[in-house]
Request: fold
Amino acid sequence: MLKKKIFSVGEIANFIKNLLERDELRNIWVEGEISDYRKVGNNCYFSLKDERASIKCVMFNAENASLREGMKVIVKGDVGVYEKRGYYQLYVREIKIGGIGEIFIKFLEMKEKLEKEGLFDRRYKKAIPPIPSTVGVITSKEGAAIHDIYNVISRRFPLRIVLAPVRVQGETAADEIVRAIEALNERDDVDVIILARGGGRWEDLQAFNEEKVARAIFRSRIPIISGVGHESDFTIADFVADVRAATPSAAAEMAVPDGREIMEWMDEAMERMLSLVARRVGRAMETLEGMRPERMMIHAARGVERKRERCEGVVKEMEGVMNSLIASRRHDMEVLHTALEAMSPYRVLERGYSICIREKDNKVFSSIGDADIGDVLRVIVKDGEAKCRMEEKRRK
Amino acid sequence: MQDGGEEKEIKFEDALKALERVVEELEKGDLTLDEMLKKFEEGIRLFKICREKLERAEARIEELSGEI
Reply:
């Protein structure tokens, strides 16, 4: 800073702000005791103190925090300067409540250990299948999580859910989760697994922080989506899982595609096919128009009978399909429909062509080798047919 | 529509992929009219399978039994 200058308060405040708001003081965990606790709306104001010092803290939108005076906590946040009042404080984003210091340190140690081993590495993350047939769910039978998941899946993309019921907290929870992961992996019908638990206190999520659960997730051949606790709660399971969702509902959304989007894609595909076919048919019609009727008197397409049936079938099917698409694009569809009808062989007859069929087997006579002298042929014209006997033939 | 055993068996995902392939092949444009109609019919068949599966689909929960 320049000497000899007279600074404005704002300049000094800004200078101090720049000094304090640095990376080392961002995303830090601080342990202390709560004092001067106040709650205004959804915001909490308090000081965190220990024997030596105290620091002002503020937490915005702290709906879930149930803090009390004197409570021991660990908070996570950034140091920041409140220039207007001239003090520095801790902007808290996360609070872990009292007596959990030890579990929390264990959690951090476990996280570091597994991270070093590479269990969280991006390259081990398995892709979630875009369209699964069956979703495996590991959660409590009684909890809200399974209902949330069921609701999301039936709304978005209904399919079969295989529930592996487990306890999600308590002594046996971790072992049950491990066995559930293994059991689902033994099946051949599960495409993706959701490991879920509804929100709760952080202490209650400890099963999801256990090493054996982490390793079972890592070993799973089937991709796993974790949806444990609240938005702000991260567990070891979240880090090892192939994808982490903030809540069970969010996990379900990641597990299945949106049926409406697929339906839209299908409608587009159908329209694309209709227009491609109509264009091709149009081209065929042009070619036909270009031929002179005299040369076509005994013209017939190969397998015309079969083709006619198929064309009619196609036209009929298309009517069904189009009826559902027609509402939005009535005009286009009508044009296509007309083009498709025009390709019916009967329309060809209308325009003066005829079709010639062998009497003995109803096969179309389309090549000179198809019939011999003396064979009986049926000649179909637009308003009737004639039985004829071949007298002479000549190859072109 | 007849519901052949094979149609019941085909997975939604596979049917959708097959539909995608049909559209691609039609788009390539090197098919005869006959081949094109054949593909088109196949496309309509797949479209119907997919749509039916999507419309009829119901979410259901099966519980894994055993000693978890």
Summary: Residues 9-99 of chain A form a domain with the OB fold (Dihydrolipoamide Acetyltransferase, E2P) fold (CATH 2.40.50.140). The CA atoms of residues 307 and 356 of chain A lie 14 Å apart. The longest helix of chain A spans residues 259-289.
